[in-house]
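user: can you give me the structure for this one chain? tokens are fine.
assistant: on it. calling the predictor now.
[tool input]
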Amino acid sequence: MPGMPSVPQQRWPFGLTYPIAVVAPSPPFHSSLAGFSLPAARRPPQSCVRRRRTPADMRKPHPWAPSCGRAAPAAQPDVAYNARMRPALSAMLVSLLAGGAGAQVPPSLAPGDPAPELKIGVWLKGGAVASFEPGRLYVLDLWATTSAPCKESIPHLSELQQRYADALTVIGVSEELPQVVESYVNALAQAGKAGYRMAADPDGSTFKDYYHTSAREGLPAAFLIRDGRILWIGHPLELDKVLPRVQAGTWKVEDARKAFGLLYQLQIFHLVFERASGDEKLHILEGCLSAMGQLVALDEDLYGSFRVDQFQLLVGPLQRPKDAYALADTILEKDWDEAFSLHDLAWSIVDPAAMVQDRRLDVAMKAATHACELTRYEDAGLVSTLARVYYTAGDVREAVRLQERAVELAGKDAEPEQRVLDEYKKTLRDREI
């Protein structure tokens, strides 16, 4: 953008260079973008929510399955994001931040940096750890008793502590009052869900040294440490994909550092998006697309789920359906056994609130059907999405049948699914009049 100030090279940490290379927007700004909200900069890993690799014994036909194609798609080339360059994006972000879009201090702690000294206030469970023992792995998990994601991650961390007992020490730290944390931990321990060291940090020193200096957003936040050096920072439920590589000696700290910087870029994009003008929003979305693509290329195992986010941007606000559906072929190939990745792809196409002009229902049908097959038609959300695909395709009767199943599966949480079922039944009645 003409007139934009130059940007200091050190503004982005961890060796990421200015300007950010992104594709110049091809379509003009369209008014529907005004209602688009950028998703959270970094969602919890899908394994934390629902996405998981479906067990082999569940990959079989189910009597609820509608009759439609189930063949796995052929491999397709990935989408390239290296067309025309727009060097002004980074300067625009600095301008927006200076204009009050939100205060954001760049992280000073990242993978590859020395781990700050432990300053634990009160040890509540397990023996105290005075310092990091050379050669041993440590997971420092920052959490809170009021956080639902933290509650979900504690049993998982307990499993990791048991699995890697000879090489790993897990330390959970909350900055709440010791009596609050102790009561919560005791209840979890009695239920067999807290099998590692727990501590309270009421003066917040550990959170200051780790959480704030790494510019984390949300809890839990995990730090993997060995030999006094941070190897990785992220959500504890991602450790399943990190620890085996660390143990095998194949983990690359320099790649983890690059990924950390790219995730921070996405964090900044999210911060400034709502304040940006229409044209600026398009540039920000292109920046998101580029950063996500770099993350996938850097570590597909950890960040492959960003392909669905890229698809959502391409098929919706960026209006690049050709690129979007080329990427959809890649998602169908690489995530064919990932039910919730397929679900997210299908829902991105049929979501009635999404700004999608080219709804390829054949792609949505293939993805949603196989997602339901992988989960034996036992997940209300997945079945409901398949019903929406049929409804959008005009087969309202099949949509009603499937949505009735979704209502049944939802149980006490069936009210939203029931409203959708009522909508479908009304449409069916109106057609039969």
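assistant: here you go. Residues 122-227 form a domain with the Glutaredoxin fold (CATH 3.40.30.10). The CA atoms of residues 57 and 409 lie 21 Å apart.
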